[in-house]
Specification:
The protein has 732 residues and is α+β, with helices and mostly antiparallel strands. It contains 27 helices and eleven strands. It is elongated and about 90 Å long.
């Protein structure tokens, strides 16, 4: 592989104008396509096959006028303290609001609070329910503006009006504040290289890669229904790995220049050696992200594939466009600092001193690191999973105000009513089976109200609305959904009717359960595949085991930190987290996939150099220290860049993006500085030569991928180009 990449790097260097022109054309073509072919992205997190989705599908077929699966909005209208909505003036204002709501775009039906008696006991608050003909993600900003404009008559009369429901949730968007991470990454690059040119190259190539990836995703949205978080995840990962991979190759290029090689040879060698590590590091990330396709959750599969393709583009750009750009930059990437470092090459570096310290105190360092991570992981035992609702919206938002207004006037359960579908097509007594269903459900704990049934025209499907006493994110409501579903068997045996539960709250519960159930199989899949890949890279059984164990420690500690911040509320003011609540149900599986790939990046970048020293005959501790000396600075810079990029997303407004950004930033911090920079050298020193143990039969069976570029180094050392034909003497 190293020889192939050497040739690719040399070709790109020599044909730099052609390579640059091709990538520019690709970027411009995709950019034009993104402007003309883009489509609407979805906030939907439904999973085919769940009971809630099957019930929605049944209602769409048998009871289309129920607007099942469509977006919903709750409109809370409140009179000032001491007043009532029953006065003629206030009542007239409410009626005007309802009339305007009914004429708003895409609205299918509105429940008039005065007719439905949805007025609080003190007469001060009324609740109107709005159902849309389209799904929540299809409600446009113009539709939401029209909905909110319907409140004007009430506000002119001195009433307060707040809006909640899934129809009010717009698609997540990137913000200018998230660019702070890129600015910090640029500063880290300048400090690392001591050269503006060298610092600018990784940023330039990473931005090109992200531009290509994001444009491709935008075009795909015109033909596929993509989750609105798909481009956000691709942007996060694409920026981080794009900068890191370029950083690794540029660092090797500077090293080759410092060794006295001409720019073309330096670029080719850097691509052949560091590029091999980039390929395998990228493969681990791609495996982890593409593995999301096997967990049976469509929106996660979309996010994983999009992010994996963005990573693949980042690898391809690092291997082609970067050598071409190095051809334009030449020796300008060598700043004053690089020349000073070359003169002081014999002096111990900070990384070398740290590795020596770890080797001398390996047992206490190892114990302290592991115990510290386990302590940080303790809050993870209290993790609760859920999906966002109005209770987790920003405190000053209309959704949050509506949630509290409804909760204080009608009870928390009114913010998340359940829809119970009774299919009476095979029931002997359809009306009797519906009455029995109402009686059974009314007797369950945590039920505040069961509305009179609505029955479709053929009379074979009934729809009940069940209002829990508890909020939509509570464990009591989750238990109630299970209890209602538990009545299905008895009702079917007694009457022949089929009972199922749906609605946004039930759907969120189903999605969370499905995601939780997919966690362990997914973890086993990516760990297994990556274990094989790392065994190929390091030709060792122990090193991949150690890498995996360290990753599990990183994940556990990260889960603990996420729970402490986003569920318990620690450091909320410092981090700008507006609200607490259950952890987003998609976060754990996303975190595992992304963090595993990034953790293996550092493992490959750091330990390949240790293996290179070991292969060349160095003693175990010497190999570890020397490898750490060469790899630590790049890993530190790469980690700081990733942390900066991810941390920039903590400044976002959406809780999901905040939590993903924080989790990835903290996970990289822990994995890079505690696991890879501390635990790994301690374990390598402790195991000695045993770290490189591989059964002989397995050694013979595994192909030699030469990630360290040994074969390339030998051929170049002979004075031959890798693609030259060397004639052997006759008779040899």
């Amino acid at each position: 592989m190293a020889t192939l990449l050497y040739r690719l790097g040399r070709f790109s260097f020599r044909k730099r104008w052609l390579v640059a022109a091709v990538w520019t054309a690709v970027l411009l073509a995709l950019g034009l396509g993104a402007l003309t072919l883009s489509g609407q992205m979805s906030n939907s997190v439904s999973i085919p096959g769940t009971e809630s989705q099957q019930a929605i599908d049944h209602l769409k077929e048998k009871f289309p006028q129920s607007s099942a699966g469509g977006g919903t909005a709750r409109v809370a209208i409140a009179a000032p303290e001491g007043q009532s909505l029953t006065t003629p003036a206030n009542q007239a204002a409410v009626e005007q609001v309802v009339a305007k709501l009914k004429s708003a775009p895409q609205v299918a039906s509105v429940v008039d609070p005065l007719q439905a008696k949805m007025v609080s006991p003190d007469g001060r608050v009324a609740l109107a329910q709005v159902s849309y003909r389209v799904q929540a993600f299809e409600v446009t900003d113009a539709d939401r503006d029209a909905l909110q404009a319907a409140a004007d008559p009430a506000r002119q009369a001195g009433l307060a009006v707040e809006f909640g429901g899934d129809a009010m949730q717009g698609a997540p968007e990137t913000q200018a504040t998230e660019g702070v991470g890129v600015a910090v990454a640029a500063l880290v690059l300048v400090i690392t290289f001591g050269s503006l040119v060298a610092a600018g190259l990784p940023l330039l190539t990473a931005l090109v890669g992200v531009g290509v990836g994001m444009a491709g995703i935008t075009i795909a949205s015109g033909f596929l229904e993509l989750n609105a978080n798909t481009p956000i995840l691709a942007l996060m990962i694409g920026l981080a790995v794009g900068i890191d991979y370029a950083l690794f190759i540029v660092s090797r290029y500077r090293h080759e220049l410092a060794e006295g090689r001409d720019p073309e040879q330096a670029a080719a060698r850097a691509t052949g050696t560091a590029g091999s590590a980039v390929v395998f590091a990228g493969l681990t990330v791609i495996i982890a992200l593409a593995g999301l396709t096997v967990v049976g959750i469509p929106f996660l599969a979309e996010m994983g594939i999009a992010a994996a393709l963005t990573v693949a583009i980042a690898v391809l750009i690092a291997l082609t466009l970067l050598p071409a750009v190095l051809g334009f930059a030449g020796r300008k990437v060598l700043g004053k600092r690089a020349r000073e470092e070359s003169a002081d090459a014999a002096k111990p570096t900070h990384g070398e001193r740290w590795a020596g310290f770890v080797a001398r105190h390996r047992v206490p360092v190892l114990l302290a690191s592991v115990i510290g991570l386990l302590i940080v992981a303790v809050p993870a035992m209290d993790m609760q999973l859920g999906l966002p609702n109005d209770s987790t919206a920003a405190p000053e938002s209309s959704q949050r105000k509506a949630y509290h207004l409804v909760s204080s006037s009608f009870g928390e359960g009114m913010n998340g009513p359940l829809m119970v579908v009774v299919d009476t097509a095979h029931a002997q007594d359809p009306q009797g089976s519906v009455r029995q269903a109402v009686e059974r459900i009314s007797k369950l704990p945590d039920v505040a109200l069961v509305t009179p049934p609505r029955i479709n025209q053929p009379g074979d499907t009934a729809l009940l609305t069940v209002v829990p006493k508890s909020g939509p994110s509570s464990e009591q409501t989750e238990q109630l959904v299970g209890d209602i579903r538990g009545q299905a068997g008895g009702l079917r045996d007694t009457t022949g009717a089929q009972l199922s539960v749906t609605g946004q709250t039930a759907a969120n519960i189903d999605v969370s359960e499905k995601l939780s159930g997919a966690l362990l199989p997914y973890l086993a899949l990516i760990v297994g595949l990556a274990f094989v890949l790392l065994m190929l890279v390091f030709r060792s059984v122990v090193v991949p085991l150690k890498a995996t164990a360290g990753f599990l420690l990183s994940v556990a500690a990260t889960f603990g930190a996420v729970v402490a911040v986003f569920q318990w509320g620690w450091l909320n003011d410092v981090l700008g987290v507006a609200s607490t609540g259950p952890i987003m149900s998609m976060l754990p599986i996303l975190l595992i996939g992304v963090l595993f790939g990034l953790a293996m990046d550092y493992q490959v970048f750091l330990v390949t150099r240790m293996r290179e020293e070991h292969v060349h005959g160095a003693e175990p501790d010497r190999a570890m220290v020397t490898g750490f000396r060469h790899g630590s600075r790049v890993v530190v810079a790469a980690a700081l860049i990733m942390i900066s990029v991810f941390a920039g997303f903590v400044l976002a407004e959406q809780a999901l993006i905040q939590s993903i950004g924080f989790a990835l930033a903290f996970g990289v911090l822990v994995d890079a500085f505690v696991v890879r920079m501390t635990i790994v050298p301690a374990v390598m020193s402790l195991l000695g030569k045993g770290a490189w143990w591989l059964p002989k039969w397995l050694d013979r069976a595994l192909p030699n991928v030469d990630v360290e570029g040994e074969g390339l180094t030998r051929r170049l050392g002979d004075g031959h180009e890798p693609d030259e034909k060397v004639l052997e003497p006759a008779g040899r």
